[in-house]
Amino acid sequence: MTDRQQIYDSITAQIAPFNKKEVALTEATTFAGDLEWDSLTVMDFVAAIEDEFDIIITMNMQAEIETVGQLVDAVAKLKK
Amino acid sequence: MSQTVTDTAPALANDRDLFSKFDPLIAEREALLATGVRDPFAIVMDEVKSPTLAVIKGQETILLGTYNYMGMTFDPDVVAAGKKALDEFGAGTTGSRVLNGTYQGHREVEDALKEFYGTSSAMVFSTGYQANLGMISTLAGRGDYVILDADSHASIYDGCFLGDAEIVRFRHNSVEDLDKRLGRLPAEALKLVVLEGVYSMLGDVAPLPEMVAAVRKHANCMILVDEAHGMGFFGANGRGVYEEQGVEKDVDFIVGTFSKSVGTVGGFCVSNHPKFEVMRLVCRPYVFTASLPPSVVATAATSIRKLMHAGEKRAHLWKNSQRLHKGLTDLGFTLGTKTPQSAIIAVILTDQTQAVAIWQALLELGLYVNMARPPATPAGTFLLRCSLCAEHSDEQVTQIIGMFEAAGKAVGAIA
Q: In chain A, N or C: fewer CB atoms in 10 Å?
């Protein structure tokens, strides 16, 4: 299993408790559009991801991340 | 989304314009107002009789939703100072502080602030909002970090967005979360940690000694504390929560406002930093706006000097806060804090319909409180926010509790 796949699996596991509508997840799933998360949910989720990977995703970076795939890429970069 | 483009396209395009993104909000408000309730965001005070009493639509109404914590708006000395300045210096300065907009009165109010806070510098902005906007966006530049509490006031967030720094937020009032996030940032990067003494929505107070201790474990951090809702009320000299909790030596910047306890309008930052004065040249929200009118700075200076000796008023305000907190708790309301922590008591309600219903019932009984809703509130809550004044009499507090009982029962929020 590649590093990227591991990160993807880990992120989808973190999404699960916030995925109230049980939307099927792909790389292209969007947080605001498909998952319909409000800003408070996003905040809680980002904090959970930061703690999981021991990283910081600044609000500046968050503004650029719309899809699950983009988040996986961002985490992969930040972990280095 | 494969709609055929027809010759009606231009007309259709007109259905959508830059206001279209507000359609859901417009629809929500129309639906709410169609139920016959009054608009909580369109109240007009026809007469204001005192810091605690106004006339709204012909009815005398007790004010429990202002930031007039110390009741200075009608203080005779304050009003007289404003009238004198209006006569002597005119209605406005029509200019920036760094050009023609600094009068003797601006210097005097900054002197009053330096004395009040015991600092070497004080800088006055035209509003409290601009003070946060200016300080945060100017202090933290590209490559620097701003670390802020998730429940921070909009002016703090907007200060972050105006600047070029990287923005990191931590869970509200969580010392552990703050510590952990600071630990993940590059040690050599310069960091500004922004805290508030009192958080205005729920009226809860920050654990500043623990937070300051967590910050000091990490390199290259400066601390800014917003004391907008703490000034006048907390600490032996009324400086704010940071004074009451004994962390004065550890805070680099205090931001505050004249529009709460001081009783007029304006904002400021005080500091002991030796290079602080350069801010006057580099801080855009200070430079590129007109300075406060002479009457405003005169009322502010007089009020600040009186707040230095307002121990009795502070004691009465605490008593009011404790009585209202106990009264509402005893009635069965859910409040934002378990104990009274500030002059703000927030009543937490289940949804917008219930919140508006009680708000209106209270207004009809002659009591004005603030209704607050997401996104201004934390965790998507609907609040009736009560802010007490040192001028509320014991009798008024008894009346207020009685009105909450009647309104709460009428609407079914309490048994």
A: C
Residue of A nearest to B144 (CA): A58
Residue B293 has pLDDT above 70, yes or no: yes
Same domain, B106 and B209: yes
**Which CATH number do you get for residue B152?**
3.40.640.10
Q: Do B185 and B166 reside in the same domain of the chain? A: yes
Compute the average pLDDT of residues B301-315.
96
B236 and B349 part of one domain = no
Contact between A56 and B160 using a beta-carbon 8 Å cutoff? no
Contact B181 A51 (CB under 8 A): no
B10 part of a folded domain: no
Contact indicator for B155, B137 with CB cutoff of 8 Å: no
For residue A39, the model assigns a pLDDT of: 81
Interface of B with A (CB under 8 A): 145, 150, 160, 166-169, 171, 177, 180-181, 184-185, 374-375, 379-380
ipTM: 0.91
What confidence tens digit (pLDDT) does each residue in A18-50 have?
998 899 999 999 999 999 998 888 989 999 999
In whole angstroms, what is the distance from residue B132 CA to residue A19 CA?
36
Which residues of chain A make contact with B379, given a CB cutoff of 8 A? 40
pLDDT, mean of residues B285-314: 97
Domain that holds residue B186: 76-307
Euclidean distance between CA atoms B358 and B404, whole angstroms: 8
CA A62 to chain B, closest CA, distance in angstroms equals 10
B354 found inside a domain:
yes
The pTM is what?
A: 0.93
CA distance B409 to chain A (A): 32
Residue B1, pLDDT > 50, answer no
The pLDDT score that the predictor gives to residue B109 is 98
* Interface touch B168/A38, C-beta < 8 Å: no
Same-domain check for residues B303 and B398: no
Give the minimum alpha-carbon distance from A30 to chain B in angstroms, rounded to a whole number.
Answer: 18
The reply to whether B90 and B42 lie within a common domain is no
Per-residue pLDDT tens over the stretch B385-395: 999 999 999 99
Q: Give the distance from residue A64's alpha carbon to the nearest chain B alpha carbon, in angstroms.
A: 13
* CB-based contact B181 A60, cutoff 8 Å: no
B223 and B291 co-located in one domain: yes
Q: Between chains, do A40 and B171 touch, taking CB under 8 Å as contact?
A: no
List the beta bridge partners of residue B198.
Answer: B205
Q: Are residues B113 and B156 in the same domain?
A: yes
Percent pLDDT > 90 in chain B is: 90
Using CA coordinates, name the residue in chain A closest to B185: A56
Contact B181 A50 (CB under 8 A): yes
